[in-house]
């Protein structure tokens, strides 16, 4: 699976950005998808994740109410709408995907696992929020 993130840039505090992640190869419409970020000088951290159907989502407390993750399986694309951006949201943002397990690919690890790691990673896109 190849993941290509785009949409990063420079924005003022209070502004908005929408990140996109296009997936190719494998069967991305069956994968859970997520966004992570790595602020300068810090460890990578979980931002948001979404199940393969798009029915369920999960967010880090720091972005809850401001960020929205969504997906369009017809386009093999996942989005991260970021509103009310703050300087502390400045980071490299990474798109990730997690494949189902088990015979027939019917078992999903769940948010507890996805918040820590996923199977496939794309190159990041830089988001810079100025104060």
Describe the structure.
By secondary structure, this protein is mainly beta. Helices cover about 5% and strands about 45% of the residues. The strands form two sheets. Strands 2, 4, 5, 6, 9, 10 and 11 form a seven-stranded mixed beta sheet that branches. A four-stranded antiparallel beta sheet has the order 1-3-8-7, with no helix packed on it. A hairpin with a 4-residue loop joins strand 7 and strand 8. The radius of gyration is 14 Å and the shape is globular.
Keywords:
131 residues, mainly beta, seven-stranded mixed sheet, four-stranded antiparallel sheet, 1 helix, 11 strands, 47% strand
Percent helix, as a range, is under 10%
* Net shape: globular
- Overall average residue pLDDT: 96
Distance between the termini: 37 Å
Number of helices: 1
Largest sheet: 7 strands, mixed
Name the poorly predicted regions. Answer: none
Strand content: over 45%
Please render the helix and strand layout as text:
Blueprint: E1 2-6, E2 9-12, E3 17-24, E4 32-38, E5 45-50, E6 57-59, E7 67-72, E8 77-82, E9 91-98, H1 111-114, E10 120-121, E11 125-130
Parallel strand pairs: 2-11
Antiparallel strand pairs: 1-3, 3-8, 4-5, 4-9, 5-6, 7-8, 9-10, 9-11
In short:
With about 130 residues, the chain is mainly beta. It is about 5% helix and about 45% strand.
